[in-house]
User: Fold this.
Amino acid sequence: MSSLTRVLYPYGNDNYGVLLHCPETLQTACVDCGDAESTLASLQEKGWSLSDIWVTHHHADHTAGVESLKQATGAKVHGPNRSETPIKSVDHVLTDGDTFDFAGRGVQVIHTPGHTLDMVNFYLPADSVVFTGDTLFTLGCGRLFEGDAPMMWKSLLKLSALPKDTVIYSSHEYTESNAAFALTVDPGNSALRDQADGVKRLRDANKPTVPTTLAMELQTNPFLRADDPGIRSNLAMEHASDAEVFAEIRRRKDSF
Ligand code: ZN
Ligand code: FE
Assistant:
């Protein structure tokens, strides 16, 4: 089985979409679609036709283009569909632990509520890649719009448990601001300082900081490091639970 070709493309203010293409079956999936024009332009540039649309959550910057993209391509839409926050174009409703097929490999559905309650992430073990939507960003995590901190911490633990060489695609270019914030809670972390320098070089060259890897995030992303003694000591929270430390880091980021 040959590996999938991945294409990252920007849209909107700071969103990223991804195309996944199988050179053998010629199937192509896209992750989210806030803007059908951008997705169609990327498909056209590669000469690929879309077979599947994977939706992470109901926010408009991830779904506004889904219906017209579906109409234009005939692709099948896989995604969550909570009655409170419906995504009306969804053909295949996903829940936690589901596995579905794409181009002969399994796509595992990981429910990661917190940013929204419907959030799902897509993990492809055969390709060592996960699409984390607005749950886990490079050096950051999503804001808690619908869930609470203990819920999000639990969701991040699910992602942290994936193999360390997993490649992580998230949906926004927020990394420079995330790096600046991360240094305020974890200034003694030399891996983080190096990563912040690397991020600045990439952004100065107008290059994306997505994807990242789980190994890198476990070393540098404060939202995965609530158990780190250095961070706990900086926050004077040595005796708090990991979820409480996570909540404090998230609270500080909200007002950063
Ligand atoms: Zn969102
Ligand atoms: Fe978003």
Remarks:
- The mean pLDDT is 98.
- The pocket of zinc ion (ligand 1) is lined by residues 57, 59, 115, 134 (CB under 6 Å).
